[in-house]
Amino acid sequence: MTGLGPLVRLALRRDRLLLAAWVVALVGITLATTSAVGELYGTAESRVRLGATAGVNPAFLALLGPLHDASTAGGVLAWRWGVFGALLVALMSAFLVTRHTRAEEEAGRLELVGSAVVGRHAPLAAAVVTAVLVNALVGGLIAVGLVGLGERAAGSFAFGAGFAAVGLVFAGVGAVAAQLPESARAANSAAGAVLGLSYLLRAVGDAAGDRGPTWLTWCSPLGWFEHTRPFAGDRWWVLAVPLGVTALLVATAAVLVTRRDTGGGLVPARLGPAHAPRSLSSAFGLAWRLQRGVLLGWALGLFVLGAVYGAVARGVEEMLADNPAMRQVIGRLGGSGGIVDVYLASILGIVALFGSGFAVQAVLRLRAEESASRAEPVLATAVRRSAWVGGHVLLAVVGSAAVLAAAGLGAGLVHGLRVGDVGGQVARLVGASLAHVPAVWVVAGLALALFGLVPRLATASWAVLVAFLVLGQLGPLLELDPWAMDLSPFTHVPKVPGAEVTAAPLLWLALVAAGLVAVGFAGFRRRDVG
Question: What's the rounded Cα separation, in Å, for the pair 439 and 242?
Fold first, then answer.
């Protein structure tokens, strides 16, 4: 552990702006949501009515989790924001650990640090300690802020501790993932896959009902947050589960780090064939070879997620039959068509935001290739810059449409089987999913523009995507001004199925995306590689 203290200070110094942004965003959104919930459900009657419907319906259980106690604004907050807030805390923690471990090794900086008087475990321990400090700060500020807004102290601290506990688990996940592959990108993908599986297990377990596999929520760190039940019993003993798992994961990472070489991974990269196929003679062929596994993983994941949400679509109509207040809430989220279509439009909007993650990841592969000095040997040949960038951009454009179509296919197949109209529902929901493609292209264009103009800030594309997610999920609840909601390209997508499809907003989104892509191309042509 020699050198642990200086490495922790170095990590905090390097990430002071990034971590401050995460902390301010997570705490601010939580407190703003609390105030909005207090205004929207200001009476006990309105909260009881909400709990009698949303807390037992499979559709809402899959989307947001159980509403354990609707008697207080804090209980509604834990239902409305708990899962998505914990999701963001998990992303922050996992990426933070991989950034200060595997990414440092890949860049060669950790080898230089390790040549000084630094212990073998110190870099890993410093990354974990930094994550612990940041999660403790987020949880503590949220708890204090909720108390300041008038919520019960016990529930407030249980809520903050639950967020911090989820963050610690995924700090451990990031620590283990950093030991397996040889690249930071692959480590982040592995941690993201674990997070996606956790969300899926929670959704299936929550929506299963009394006779279904509700035990699946105990297999998910997001489910552990729900079982803590902030403002609804405050089951502190549940926190022992994530803390124990965190200790086990960190201990596993500490053992693994001594069983590999610095810069290497426990899962070595496979040797390629002696002769390259003809497909690698083009820039797109190279991009496809590098990212085909990622594309397949995203398509499969969104297909399963769409299927889960499609399975509970019919339950929405039953829940809202006698509840006009909930009809109004769902309508604000999804549109003005039939209530099942409104629900489907809402969940397809969320799935489209998740699918934007593939587009960002595909574009940022350009930055990863450049940072690892693999771009220069390619560009030293007859390959032009525009062709090299264009290959990855084309994959992001086509691949994003493919992963959204997979989500619509999953939702359409399952929902169609339940209503006896597989062909019609598949066509409708695949088309509804593809309506979000221009908005996804705007996100990809933003990532490319950052890569071309200010490559050091290219990873800020993830922050932009998170901002769009928050605007989409909490904008109606917070009653934000129209101009603020319009900042998200997904606001301009027709709420299909259920709403009339107009070509104008989709064409404008496509033009904005094309302009951003042009800016990215021009910026990359005018700057030095590396």
Answer: 36
Model confidence over 31-88: pLDDT tens digits?
Answer: 988 888 888 777 777 777 777 766 666 777 887 888 888 888 888 899 888 999 999 9
Place of tokens 């110094």: 13
- Provide the CA 46 distance to its chain's centre, in angstroms: 31
How many Å apart are CA 520 and CA 392, to the nearest integer? Answer: 12
493 in Cβ contact with 505 (< 8 Å): yes
Helix (H, G, I), strand (E, B) or coil at 68: coil
CB 11 within 8 A of CB 104: no
Would you mind telling me the total number of residues written for the chain in this entry?
530
Identity of residue 154: A
Q: In the predicted model, what is the mean pLDDT of residues 298-303?
A: 92
- What per-residue confidence (pLDDT) applies to 344? 85
Angle (CA) 341-345-350 rounded to 5° is 150
Tell if the pTM clears 0.90, that is, is over it: no
pLDDT digits (tens, 9 = 90+) for 217-237: 999 999 999 999 999 989 999
* b/e code 189-217 from CB counts within 10 Å (16+ = b): bbbbebbbebbbbbbbbbbbeeeeebebb
pLDDT bucket at 302, cuts 50 / 70 / 90: very high
User: Are 444 and 393 spatial neighbours (Cβ–Cβ below 8 Å)?
Assistant: yes
pLDDT at 316: 65
Burial class (CB in 10 A: 0-12, 13-18, 19+), 77: buried
Residue 324 preceded by cis peptide, ω within 30:
no
Look at residue 489 and tell me whether its pLDDT is greater than 90: yes
Query: What 8-state DSSP symbol labels residue 275?
Result: S
> What six digits make up the tokens of 450?
């950052």
Task: Express each pLDDT in 415-469 by its tens digit.
Answer: 888 888 888 899 999 999 999 999 999 999 999 999 999 998 888 898 888 888 8
Per-residue pLDDT tens over the stretch 81-91: 899 999 999 99
Tokens of 267: 């899962």
Q: What angle do CA 176, 180, 182 make, to 5 degrees?
A: 130
Under 8 Å CB-to-CB from 220, ≥6 apart: which residues? 197, 198, 199, 201, 202, 205
Q: Tokens 């705007």, residue?
A: 442
Using N-to-C axis directions, what is the helix angle for 240-257 and 153-177, rounded to 10°? 20
According to the model, what pLDDT value does residue 141 have?
A: 96
Name the maximum alpha-carbon separation found in the chain: 71
Location of structure tokens 């997620």: 305
Q: How far apart are CA 51 and CA 46, in angstroms?
A: 9
